[in-house]
Amino acid sequence: MILIGMFDSPYVRRVAISATHLGFAFEHRNWSVGRDAALIREYNPQGRVPVLVLDDGEALTESALILDHLDQLAGPQRALLPAAGAARREAQIAIALATGAVDKGIQLVYERLFRPEEKRHEPWLQRCRTQADGALAALDHRCEARGAHKEWLVGDAMTQADVTLACFCTYLHDAVPLDLSPYPALRQRVERYESLPLFRQFYVPFDAPVT
């Protein structure tokens, strides 16, 4: 398999961590959505990452689709998203909150990088910040309720909730940049995950894309 995209993308990074944890080897093409857009469009007409090119040449786009495919390959006993029941719902809720936060964070990043300051609409930026803060506060509450002594956010093994939480919150911290100190339980959990070799393996500092 071939994974296309830079690891400073939270979506690319969560695919890399998930694939490696599940035991799937991949070739990495460190292509930027800015300078390498033409190359990426050969596999994804939108020019977006991540893209996972399968051994038969089929290209999967959107990280949720890619992660679902990897879980199916791994089988229900090893899949990172629990198969059913309360554990699956808990993981999905955490993933949804983290995704909501990072989506708003990405909008803030793009405003800062690509829109002249005099053309930025502060009420819209504040709305994005408020929505991101709401999601992070809810995640912090979940982390606090889970307790620092619990190694993983859901159940007794790492799930996609843990991978997504770390990748997305680290992006927010690095790229927006957003201070995680108002969310102490969340910050502590993210820092612990990021200290693990698997997460360190695929961490690179944020590299702002260019048009």
Please give a structural write-up.
- By secondary structure, the protein is mostly helical.
- The chain has two domains: 2-74, Glutaredoxin (3-Layer(aba) Sandwich), CATH 3.40.30.10; 85-201, Up-down Bundle (Glutathione S-transferase Yfyf (Class Pi), Chain A, domain 2).
- It is built from eight helices and four strands.
- The chain has helices at residues 10-22, 37-41, 63-74, 85-114, 122-146, 160-175, 184-194, 197-201, and strands at 2-4, 27-29, 51-53, 59-61.
- The chain has a four-stranded mixed β-sheet, covered by helices on one side.
- A hairpin with a 5-residue loop joins strand 3 and strand 4.
- The protein is globular.
- The mean pLDDT is 96.
Keywords:
211 residues, mainly alpha, Glutaredoxin, Glutathione S-transferase Yfyf (Class Pi), Chain A, domain 2, four-stranded mixed β-sheet
The chain-level structural class is mainly alpha
Which fold does the CATH topology of the largest domain refer to? Glutathione S-transferase Yfyf (Class Pi), Chain A, domain 2
Strand arrangement within the widest β-sheet reads 2-1-3-4
Strand content: 5-15%
